[in-house]
């Protein structure tokens, strides 16, 4: 998309009562495709031109000829995908390609996450990628974008999912960590390395004790810090000089590490899992964790409805998650709603927990 027709500042409202003459986004085997623009949004097969909403591996995959993404995501994209042909846009900046005006707007999901706004012949579509509406100091806040058609995720698209305020959540995490120190044991917080780990680090109280991160988390921390996000001091376990620190530290690591020999150096540690799936009773036990904390980078049920309403869209297309439930709810409330089949989803551990929850439901 390097040969854009023009750049300008983005208007944020769709035209009123514009007739639809062909969809701006359709499903193809490679991913979600924009026919007039001849590009894909978060494709899961190699294509010539890809607009990327964020750097999670189910949305940003290697092998595309050209990538377009929001400027704040550059560091994490290059950290995860290496040397790629990447073009970036500032939030709200417009790019015109084959008659389609493209702009990227904050999604509030992780650093650099963006909603993709497409405008063509008076029609406006927005593809959300993943998003959350709750405040998060590690990324730009979600920005409602007016549109005719809204493509929304539904990872937590069930009414049972309702997040508590961050101050309550992190007070619980800090108290758990402090209690473990009193018992002379480490506190291991398992969470996704990109996004959730940094949000957890930004929310805990570093005065409680030392913080150790896994090797999968450290380079992403560096990308966040390079983007101006404030995170507390963290160390790799190989950098720990005083072995007593291993019995009072907070360890932030991916779930796979929490079940690996890497954990042996921390002795009799307490292991918690930070995930939105912890909202459902039984998921912590199935995962074998001592504790579960409900921490998600996605919108909960009220957040999804809030975001959809704010767009003003009369047509909503639902992607991954509990799409059938959300589609039915939206139809019952007077919207034209349908679902796209995609290959998006959370990391393997969270996907396994979702499968177990759906079986229980």
TrEMBL record:
One MF annotation (Gene Ontology) recorded for this entry: RNA endonuclease activity
Record EC number: 3.1.-.-
Domain of life, per lineage: Bacteria
Top-rank EC class of the record's enzyme: hydrolase
Entry annotated with the keyword Ligase: yes
Keywords tagged on the record: Exonuclease, Hydrolase, Ligase, Nuclease
UniProt keyword Manganese present: no
InterPro entries: MBL, RibonucZ/Hydroxyglut_hydro, Xnuc_lig_assoc
Database matches in PANTHER family: BLL1145 PROTEIN (PTHR11203:SF49), CLEAVAGE AND POLYADENYLATION SPECIFICITY FACTOR FAMILY MEMBER (PTHR11203)
UniProt-recorded name of the protein: Ligase-associated DNA damage response exonuclease
Organism ancestry: Bacteria, Pseudomonadati, Pseudomonadota, Betaproteobacteria, Burkholderiales
């Amino acid at each position: 998309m390097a040969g854009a027709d023009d750049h300008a500042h983005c208007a944020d409202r769709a035209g009123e009562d514009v007739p639809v003459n062909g969809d701006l986004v359709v499903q193809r085997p490679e991913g979600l495709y924009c026919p007039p623009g001849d590009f894909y949004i978060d494709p899961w097969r190699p294509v010539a031109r890809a607009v990327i909403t964020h750097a999670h591996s189910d949305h940003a995959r290697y092998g595309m000829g050209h990538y377009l993404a929001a400027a704040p995501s550059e560091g994490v994209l290059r950290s995860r995908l290496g040397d790629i042909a990447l073009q970036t846009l500032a939030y709200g900046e417009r790019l015109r390609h084959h008659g389609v005006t493209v702009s990227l707007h904050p999604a509030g999901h992780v650093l650099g996450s963006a909603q993709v706004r497409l405008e063509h012949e008076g029609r406006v579509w927005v593809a959300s990628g993943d998003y959350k509406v709750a405040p998060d100091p590690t990324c730009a806040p979600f920005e409602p974008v007016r549109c005719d058609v809204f493509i929304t995720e539904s990872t937590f698209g069930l009414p049972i999912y309702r997040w508590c305020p961050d101050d309550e959540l992190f007070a619980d995490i800090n108290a758990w960590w402090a209690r473990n120190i009193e018992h002379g044991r480490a506190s291991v917080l398992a969470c996704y390395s990109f996004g959730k780990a940094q949000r957890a680090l930004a929310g805990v109280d570093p005065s409680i004790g030392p913080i150790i991160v896994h090797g999968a988390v450290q380079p992403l921390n560096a990308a966040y810090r390079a983007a101006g996000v404030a995170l507390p001091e963290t160390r790799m376990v190989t950098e720990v000089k005083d072995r007593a620190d291993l019995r009072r530290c907070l360890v932030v690591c991916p779930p796979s590490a929490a079940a690996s020999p890497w954990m042996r150096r921390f002795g009799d540690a307490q292991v918690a899992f930070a995930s939105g799936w912890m909202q459902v009773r039984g998921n912590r036990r199935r995962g074998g964790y001592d504790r579960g904390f409900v921490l998600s980078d996605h919108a909960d049920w009220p957040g999804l409805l809030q975001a959809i309403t704010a767009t003003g869209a009369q047509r909503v297309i639902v992607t991954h998650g509990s799409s059938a439930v959300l589609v039915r709810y939206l139809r019952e409330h007077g919207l034209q709603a349908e679902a796209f089949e995609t290959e998006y989803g959370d990391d393997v551990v969270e996907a396994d927990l979702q499968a177990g929850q759906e079986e229980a439901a």
